[in-house]
Write a structure and sequence with these properties.
five-stranded mixed beta sheet, alpha/beta, about 40% helix, 10 strands, 14 helices
């Protein structure tokens, strides 16, 4: 997150230079599909399953799109790829990323949110008397730099946590496993399963979204230039992706999983299977409000912005509507 803040001015300038004013691809010729290069935020995994499902099942193709998924990973900065024109659409991991871009005037907006619940969790040992997140006050908590600038501000505000609890998280569960008093960040779909396999115990898992954290996750980011030049392609991508997510969770995910494993040979089927079941069990994609897959609301964005502003993350004058558009969300 800090790195994103430091480069975002350069991104804004670059996007202004790269943004096309013409609309030549707004109406492709009959039989010609619009190429959409879509950058994910990490190596291929079940948390991207709906997009791979839409690709494998032909949902994108049926809507006139030729979608190429550009796999993310360490050091991959999706906003930079969008700015350079290396991709057409990108994945926004969390609401802070989108609001940061809005704060700096970068011409990119979230057009859909395919995880109504941010899958971020805190993980604790099962034998330390920790029954709620509040019980972690005073315990060391392993966090990445990006997380300190993001959901940590909400945790401090809600539970009275303090910065002296923070320990550096290097995306390795070994320090957590070795220290029974410690907690660590993670995704509900990933780290708890890894810890259970490596350490032989089932950790305590607290999903921040179920504790009131209002952020979205797995958003589709679109440059303003593409929204203006080819809104039909943006809408087609959102609609196909929504269908892909429903089918990945509640249909046959085999073809999508095969594409995921092809892009990321380190991924194993057992990890994919358990992640998919966790997304269903926790209603990560659908949420608890009965909205369509991919939906966003003004009220939810306003709530998130108010929480972040109250902690000084953003100025009170920042309008969250600069970060997103409801033009394309499924109804």
């Amino acid at each position: 997150m800090k790195a994103l803040r430091s480069v975002v001015f350069a991104i804004a300038a670059l996007m202004a230079a790269c943004s096309p004013g013409q609309k030549e691809d707004a109406a492709p010729a009959a039989g010609q599909r619009t190429v959409i290069r879509f950058a994910t935020d990490w190596r291929a995994q079940a948390e991207h399953g709906g997009f791979y499902q839409a690709l494998a099942s032909g949902e994108y193709e049926r809507r006139g799109l030729d979608v190429k998924i550009v796999q993310g990973g360490p050091g991959v900065n999706v906003p930079q790829l969008l700015a350079a024109g290396a991709v057409d659409l990108g994945m926004g991991s969390n609401s802070f990323i989108v609001m940061n871009l809005a704060q700096e005037g970068v011409p990119v907006k979230a057009v859909a949110a395919f995880m109504q619940k941010d899958p971020q969790v805190l993980i604790a040992h099962p034998d330390q008397g920790i029954e709620t997140i509040a019980d972690l006050k005073g315990h060391p908590i392993l966090l990445s730099d990006a997380s300190v600038s993001a959901f940590w501000v909400w945790l401090k505000a809600k539970y009275g946590f303090t910065d002296d609890q923070v320990r550096k998280y290097g995306f390795n569960p070994a320090p957590f496993i070795a220290d029974k008093r410690a907690a660590q960040q993670g995704y509900v779909t990933s780290e708890p399963y890894t810890i259970e396999k490596q350490a032989g115990f089932k950790p305590k898992v607290f999903l921040l979204a179920d504790e009131g954290f209002p952020g979205y996750a797995t958003m589709v980011l679109a440059p303003d230039s593409l929204i203006a030049a080819n809104p039909a392609a943006v809408r087609a991508f959102v609609e196909a992706s929504a269908k892909g997510w429903r089918d990945y969770l509640y249909g046959d995910p085999a073809a999508a999983d095969a594409l995921i494993r092809k892009d990321n040979p380190e991924m194993t089927q057992d990890v994919l299977d358990q992640a998919r079941e966790k997304m269903k069990a926790y209603r990560i994609v659908e949420g608890d409000e009965g909205l369509a897959v991919g939906a966003m609301t003004d009220a939810r964005w306003a709530t998130f912005a108010d929480v972040a502003k109250a902690q000084g993350v953003y100025p009170a004058t920042l309008d969250p509507k600069r970060a997103y558009t409801l033009q394309f969300v499924p109804k």
